[in-house]
Design goal:
There is one protein chain. This protein has three helices and six strands. With 121 residues, the chain is of the alpha/beta class. The chain has one domain. A six-stranded mixed β-sheet has the order 1-4-3-2-6-5.
């Protein structure tokens, strides 16, 4: 018999958190990263469009932190997007958006971002 253990994430540490005033501005910044060969997933939940980059598990310390439920995000970029759309079009570029509403951790991140954005608009 296989033992199955669920060990959820306990903490996300975010080094840089940037609010963009619009979807277009966020996507324009992502286009620069895409030209450099970096891919980013755009995710949506709770009226927030966001993307992040994680610290890769390349050292023993980072791996230990991951195993203990602590994740490190180097950067998190976000903006308001009240309604979910599976694709956004910016100029000739079509970018898919993943609805992460059913992921409890990412939904919690979106709620935290929404609270932060209240003071910015």
């Amino acid at each position: 018999m296989v033992k199955i253990v669920h060990k959820p994430i306990k903490e996300i540490v975010i080094s840089e958190c940037v609010f963009y005033p619009s979807i277009d501005v966020l996507v324009e910044n992502l286009k620069v990263l895409m030209k450099l060969g970096q891919t980013r997933l755009l995710m949506w939940a709770e009226g927030i469009l966001f993307t992040h980059s994680s610290l890769p598990p390349t050292t023993d310390r980072v791996v230990d932190e991951l195993l203990n439920g602590r994740i490190f995000w180097l950067s998190l970029s976000y903006t308001l997007m009240p309604e979910y759309k599976p694709i956004i079009k910016v100029n000739a570029l079509e970018i898919p958006i993943i609805n992460v509403t059913f992921n409890p951790i990412l939904r919690e991140v979106a709620r935290w971002l929404k609270e932060r954005s209240q003071s910015r608009v």
